[in-house]
Specification:
The complex is a heterotrimer of chains A (365), B (377) and C (271). The radius of gyration of chain A is 24 Å and the shape is globular. Chain A has a domain of 221 residues: MetI-like (MetI-like fold, Orthogonal Bundle), CATH 1.10.3720.10. Chain A is mostly helical and 365 residues long. Chain B is α+β, with helices and mostly antiparallel strands. Chain B has a 6-stranded mixed sheet, sandwiched between helices. Chain B has a 5-stranded antiparallel sheet with strand order 13-12-11-14-20. The longest helix of chain B has 18 residues. Chain B is elongated. With 271 residues, chain C is an all-alpha fold. Chain C is built from 11 helices and no strands. Chains in contact: A-C, B-C. At the A-C interface, helix 1, helix 6, helix 7, helix 8 and helix 10 of A face helix 1, helix 3, helix 4, helix 5 and helix 6 of C. Chain B: One of its GO terms (biological process) is putrescine transport. Chain B: Its EC number is 7.6.2.11. Chain B: This is Spermidine/putrescine import ATP-binding protein PotA. Chain B: It holds the Pfam family TOBE_2.
Chain lengths: 365, 377, 271
């Protein structure tokens, strides 16, 4: 029995060690190596002897891609999100000192939240955009491309997460309020795109957004525009693509949170004097918060390293770090720099991943 | 479980020559910091119907799971027929368990559920069928053999679980809250069925329950557990009539507890309580030493209520505060002059409209000198 | 009673239109006569015919299916084991690292997983081909399988397994004859999920494939980069329809099973 258990643990454990952990060790090691005209195209390798190899490792690639500056920006970002957590409740309390749960108050509460959230997003985006040239003059970054790619990935991930939430929440809310016998069907309709090919779903938008695409044809024929819009190969197309492909990831956790909510809570709030709107704002919205947070992380985390969407819809104007890594590896064949890019991306992702897991644990309790 | 057809009373626990089937020897079980079972010693005899009774968290389920082999004692030994079963895994113990949730395999039919254990024993294939049929007959499940567990009712499921755990003819059958999921009426019927089956098969049953009525009905002996220890192990009537502590007296049934001081008296003892109240006379051959702090415990149904002064060993006077009408009986809450509230129960042999007493009536409460017990702890 | 307002109706209508219109357009235009994909020139199924003639696509499809079959099967075995360990094995040394490794690939950007596996295969000098894609897909798909199976095992009544042990099963026998049959639906959906993930994967496959082992997504990706073609529309339509039929029939089957079980229970209680 003891032996059987050990074997049971050993098999998947070994698999993950070999095919997950060790490969990361190799990436880490190569990120400290130098590019070389050899096979494999980096130096030093184990062939040079273990100690020789260790002493040959350096931080050159990290300096090259401007890792320090990336971390500086990321730190500022984390601080500004933390500030939002502190500022928002105060602003809200200041604007609505004693809520009477009337129409005016709930509208004010909604507007405040929206305004603070928008200001926050705008601040972050502005920060990210204005910081480049400032930082560029202060920090000596040999190649600005990587730094810009990290920042623009962050910007795209934040904005598209926010947009997905804006579109996803009403859908989840509508599903949760639909009649009981309709809900399984609606749920299936949300899950179905998740099972269909990601690549095909992104591809579908090329035909819609291109200059002679269906959208331009439609807008031209109704006469809203006279010149076709250039949407494909711009960041707008990337936003559309991300919102479209990641929408189920936002809708499902919010729906799950709303669906298990007790209806009588809203009724109790209304019984105690809330309007429909203020009942939503004071009862439904706070109770769906874990779902919203989970959804935001589920969109934000994979978007940050996204490759397919920017390369198919974004054209050469949209730089995202996943795409840069890909090109560095396949086109420039600079494995050490590609590895360093991957390591930094991973380090940035650790914070949201840890926050996400904590949110999940809290929601389970 | 008194056996009606024999003149010999079934009481191996009083027989020094009887060999116990199960022995707990100074068993302690800890989960981290928490002590679930605290240095417990207990003997259970063959063919007993032994009930473990206690509030949730008292350690009764842990005790049973140790017998089943799902937990092992931190300290001490558990012997089955004199052999330490500590190192024996559950699948090799001659012990079977009926789970609280029944744990019927949902993907197997009733027949296959019952045959499950037999197929894993050395029993030849052709005998398995006979054995399953016998079990189906014993539990009156014959026509449900082909159904899946979700296609039968709760009461039938309970019987499948019983048949399955009895099929291997274990030396010891463990029942974890076996009737907990049934409604009250079905539970009462099933209690008697359980007793019949236990008697027919002669298996030793250990039942865990939090329902005192159930324990009192089915068991030959009841163990009252509290905080990982045994408060009292005795026959149901002893537990009820002669509890050994105020905890047991209070846990089982309804009781009046009066705090007082012991005093010597002819043929027994007196308990002095309250100011200006006559002492309570008790006839006993084991009086407490004079001056000892003690409790007098008496069941409400042993307290009579009357309008005029009765002739009895103990009489007190009071006012009716409340009447709880329960159909077959009524309980009167009577306030004695000193502020103590006494409960007295009467059988409603008359129609309610002709009831003798009502609120605020002055009444006399009385009881004999053998009706209650004095408890020192 | 929940009140379904006009606002709810509007958001659902627009939401589902947004989700389904692009795919619908794709399907409609796969039947377009013209090679100019955005101009409707009449109904035709000729692109399906041409697709069937295209050896390269057919080869890639065959490779993809082989890879998906083997990797999802392996991933299901390993993922079920991993889930069982997470739920049942209690404490063991290195449990923290294990649960980290189980959940990390779910949120890991594919480019990083792909890159690290490729560098690993080069370091240990394995020729890239179907085998390496299978290994890579197994590694990330087993984590999805383990999440699906874990959520089933968590709600699994532990006393069923204890009952099996009590009735004489060895732990392995108890798993095989009681636990596995009961969690089978979750294991099957884990397998289906792993299979679709593998069918769908472009990034990891690109990193770990060799010149002789091009999968369908790789093929589609390189074709799509040059723009929209009617053959790809036809191929996409076939894939969308296959998945749709699969998902809808799976959900219908599970719903009718659930209804039947409920009816059985009601009938049983009335006896």
């Amino acid at each position: 029995m003891k032996f059987g258990r050990t074997l049971l643990v050993a098999i998947p454990y070994t698999w993950l060690l070999v095919f997950f952990l060790i490969p990361f060790g190799i990436v880490l090691k190569i990120s400290f190596s130098d590019i070389a005209l050899a096979i494999p195209p980096y130096t030093p390798t184990l062939k040079d002897g273990f100690w020789q190899m260790l002493s040959g490792l350096d931080l050159e690639n990290y300096a090259f891609i401007g890792a320090g500056a990336v971390f500086a920006v990321f730190a500022v970002l984390v601080i500004s999100v933390a500030m939002f957590q502190i500022v928002y409740p105060r602003v809200r309390r200041a604007l609505i000192p004693d809520a009477r749960y009337g129409v005016f108050d709930s509208a004010a509460a909604a507007l405040t939240t929206l305004a603070v959230a928008l200001v926050n997003v705008a601040l972050i985006v502005a920060l990210v955009s204005f910081l480049f040239p400032v930082l560029k003059s202060f920090v000596d970054i040999p190649d600005f491309l990587y730094f810009a790619a990290y920042l623009s990935s962050l910007k795209i991930a934040i904005i598209s997460t926010f947009l997905t939430l804006l579109i996803g929440y009403p859908i989840a809310y509508g599903m949760a309020r639909a009649a009981e016998h309709w809900r399984p069907t609606l749920l299936m309709l949300v899950i179905l795109p998740f099972w269909t090919s990601f690549l095909i779903r992104v591809y579908a938008w090329i035909g819609i957004l291109s200059t002679e695409g269906y959208l331009n044809q439609l807008l031209l024929s109704i006469g809203i525009i006279s010149e076709p819009l250039a949407i494909l190969n711009t960041p707008v197309a990337v936003y559309i693509g991300i919102v479209y492909t990641y929408l189920p990831f936002m809708v499902l956790p919010i729906y799950a949170a709303l669906e298990k909510m007790d209806d009588s809570l809203v009724e109790a709030a209304e019984d105690l004097g809330c309007t429909t709107l203020s009942a939503f704002w004071l009862v439904t919205a706070p109770l769906s918060k874990p779902g919203v947070i989970a959804g935001c992380f589920l969109v934000f985390i994979p978007t940050l390293g996204e490759f397919v969407i920017p390369s198919l819809l974004g054209g050469s104007n949209t730089v995202m770090i996943g795409k840069v890594l890909w090109e560095e590896f396949f086109n420039n064949r600079d494995w050490p720099v590609a590895s360093a890019v991957a390591v930094i991306l991973l380090l940035i992702l650790i914070i949201p991943i840890v926050l996400f897991q904590r949110n999940q644990e809290e929601a389970e309790q | 479980m008194a056996q009606p057809n024999t003149n010999v009373v079934f009481a191996p626990w009083d027989d020094p020559a009887a060999k116990p089937i199960i022995q707990f020897k100074n068993v302690t079980k800890r989960f981290g910091e928490f002590t679930a079972i605290d240095n417990l010693t207990l003997d259970i005899y063959p063919q007993e119907f032994f009930a473990l009774l206690g509030p949730s968290g008292c350690g009764k389920t842990t005790l049973m799971r140790m017998l089943g082999g799902f937990e092992s004692p931190t300290e001490g030994q558990i012997l089955l027929d004199g052999v330490d079963i500590g190192p024996v895994p559950p699948n090799e113990r001659p012990v079977n368990m009926m789970f609280q949730s029944y744990a019927l395999f949902p993907h197997l039919s009733v027949w296959d559920n019952i045959a499950f254990g037999l197929k894993r024993s050395n029993m030849p294939k052709d005998q398995i069928g006979d054995r399953v049929e016998k079990m189906l007959k014993l539990t009156q499940l014959g026509k449900f053999a082909k159904r899946k567990p979700h296609q039968i009712s709760g009461g039938q499921r309970q019987r499948v679980a019983l048949a399955r755990s009895l099929a291997k003819a274990p030396k010891l059958l463990l029942l974890d809250e076996p009737l907990g999921a049934l409604d009250k009426k079905l539970r009462n019927e099933t209690q008697f069925e359980l007793m019949d089956i236990q008697e027919t098969t002669g298996t030793t049953f250990v039942i865990v329950t939090h329902d005192q009525e159930e324990a009192m009905t089915v068991a030959s002996r009841v163990a009252i557990m509290v905080d990982g220890s045994l408060a009292q192990v005795s026959t149901p009537d002893q537990i009820y009539e002669a509890p050994n502590s105020t905890y047991v007296a209070d846990f089982i049934g309804d009781v009046n507890l009066i705090e007082g001081k012991a005093a010597a008296a002819k043929g027994g003892m007196d308990v002095h309580w309250g100011d200006h109240q006559p002492p309570i006379h008790i006839t006993t051959d084991k009086p407490l030493p004079a001056g000892a702090h003690c409790h007098f415990a008496i069941r409400p149904e042993k307290v009579s209520i009357s309008a005029t002064t009765p002739k009895a060993a103990n009489v007190v006077k009071g006012t009716i505060l409340d009447i709880a009408y329960l159909g077959n009986i009524s309980t009167y809450h009577v306030e004695i002059a000193s502020g103590v509230i006494f409960k007295a129960q009467t059988t409603n042999s008359k129609r309610l409209s002709r009831r003798t007493f009502t609120w605020e009536d002055e009444v006399y409460l009385s009881w004999t000198d053998t009706a209650g017990v004095v408890l020192s702890e | 009673m929940r009140r379904f307002s006009w606002f709810n109706a509007t958001s659902l209508t627009f939401g589902f239109a947004f989700l389904y219109l692009p795919m619908l357009m794709l399907i409609i235009y796969s039947f377009n006569e013209s090679r100019l994909v955005t101009v409707w020139a009449g109904f035709s199924t000729k692109w399906y015919g041409e697709l069937m003639q295209n050896e390269a696509f057919l080869d890639a499809a065959w490779v993809t299916i082989k890879v998906a079959f083997w990797s999802s099967t392996l991933a299901t075995i390993l993922g079920t084991m991993a889930a069982y360990i997470m739920v049942r094995a209690g404490r063991f040394r290195g449990r923290g690292l294990f649960s980290g490794m189980i959940y990390a690939p779910l949120v890991m950007p594919e480019v990083i997983t792909g890159l690290s596996l490729l560098l690993f295969f080069i370091a240990v000098d394995v020729d890239r081909g179907i085998l390496t894609i299978v290994l890579a897909h197994t590694t990330f798909a087993m984590c999805y399988v383990s999440v699906v199976v874990t959520s089933r095992l968590v709600s699994f009544d532990n006393s069923l397994e204890e009952a099996a042990l009590d009735l004489g099963c060895t732990p392995f026998d108890a798993f095989r004859s009681v636990t596995l049959p009961i969690i089978m639906p979750a294991v099957i959906s884990g397998w289906l999920l792993a299979f679709t993930l593998s069918l769908d994967d472009l990034v990891i496959a690109t990193f770990t494939s060799g010149p002789s082992s091009t999968t369908l997504p790789i093929k589609i990706f390189s074709a799509v980069r040059l723009g929209v073609t009617p053959e790809i529309n036809a191929l996409s339509t076939i894939m969308i329809l296959l998945v749709t039929v699969g998902v809808i029939s799976a959900s219908l089957i599970s719903r009718s099973l659930a209804i039947k079980a409920k009816a059985d229970e009601r009938k049983a209680e009335q006896q």
